[in-house]
Amino acid sequence: MQRLMQIYLVGGAVRDEMLGLAVKDRDWVVVGASADELLALGYRPVGRDFPVFIRPDTGEEYALARTERKSGHGYAGFQFHASPDVTLEDDLARRDLTINAMARSAQGELIDPYGGQRDIAARKLRHVSDAFSEDPLRVLRVARFAARFAPLGFDVADETLELMRQISQSGELEHLTTERVWQEFERALATPQPLVFLEVLKQAEALTRLLPEFAQLDLGLTAPALNRLKALDTSPESCFALLCELTLATGTDPRAQQIIQMAERLKAPNRFRDLAVQFCNWHETLYRLEQVDAAKRLEMILSLRLLKKNSHLSALLHLTQARHPDFDLQLSIRLQDLLLRLERISTQDLMRAGFSGKALGQAIEAEQLKYCSIF
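and the corresponding structure tokens:
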């Protein structure tokens, strides 16, 4: 009997459409076809071991319907089976949450064998099947979905949270690579409510295992500052910096050193580390800029390399405003004016006045302190 190849829109695109959200990426599942058939149609394979292809005219991903079987530890410990005999329902069954296990046919028909539409109405993040517990990465993914959809009223179903605890207790989380943990954390930092991500991990007994540096974070005390920041700056880098400053104790190690060590452990990009270190070191000075002396102002400006057009200045000001709600915004305007005056100091003019070598450096510093003193 001749097979009929059918293509379905699946996953997040269907979910977001039903939630009235903008659909950014579309994923497709192909049922009733083989890899050779897609190759013959001009589709380009993605990797060797995964039945995913790129459609040449749209650049979108098309995956052969597949099933999976646990064969080892961690999120990579699976064997995939893709064949024309795998049904759409079989493919959807391997997905994490019911709201991600829906499909739409070319005719617009919704296929929802596991109750995704029901859980969208109930605002629940619920696992599709007990196979959920085979993939430890899903603990992080569910926590991230909880943070992303918290403004819409979603929370994690009790039975799903219990499976997440079982994964944490099983030791499977230890098989996650640092890169995957950071990837999910960074994406969570960009969500509207990243504290929900940490709270769900804490409820799932996963926070101390995956992100122990944030295990002692007082979520109730942190929320107001983070909400103020999100109204000013939604970047994940700024969110990370604020969480670091509110979490890490001064202790025996300098706070900056703790951030550097954590960033190295998490393999966080340098831009996250650098902004967090700069903010932790200097936000108090920025906040009290009017009270500190000229030498301290100049030290801060030179340390932050503000005369070299530090791209972090705007973020640092937003972070300071979030951390100190009574921060005088006029100080940021006056700081900008001070930087302009410092930039106008002419080395050539001082050299023409007879300064050179060490004396030239001292003359430049004297000019800088003069301007910083009349802030």
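(Above: one complete record from the training split.) The CA atoms of residues 179 and 299 lie 36 Å apart.
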